[in-house]
UniProtKB/TrEMBL annotation:
Domain annotation G protein gamma: ranges: 1-69
Subcellular location: Cell membrane
Main location: membrane
InterPro entries, per database record: G-protein_gamma, G-protein_gamma-like_dom, GGL_sf
Protein name, per record: Guanine nucleotide-binding protein subunit gamma
Species lineage: Eukaryota, Metazoa, Chordata, Craniata, Vertebrata
Superkingdom per UniProt: Eukaryota
CDD domains recorded: GGL
Source species of the chain: Carassius auratus
Gene: gngt2b
Subunit structure and binding partners: G proteins are composed of 3 units; alpha, beta and gamma.
């Protein structure tokens, strides 16, 4: 996409993006970190990567073995 655009058009797009980003509200990590930790800990009981997937609900379980004759 950038190959089809002139340098001026690219710089114009970058300027538009920077104008959007400068107005984005910033929040300190020290404020948001406890909220993120609470969210992750609250969802950990439902997380299949932490507690695993039951064999009967695992869509990637092999249906049958391979038979070589």
């Amino acid at each position: 996409m950038a190959r089809d655009m002139s340098d001026k058009e690219i710089l114009k797009m970058e300027l538009e993006q920077l104008k959007l980003e400068v107005n984005t509200p910033r929040i300190a990590v020290s404020t948001t970190a406890p909220e993120i930790i609470a969210f992750v800990e609250g969802k950990s009981a439902e997380d299949p990567l932490i507690r695993g997937v039951p064999e009967d609900k695992n869509p990637f379980k092999e249906k049958g073995g391979c038979i070589i004759t």
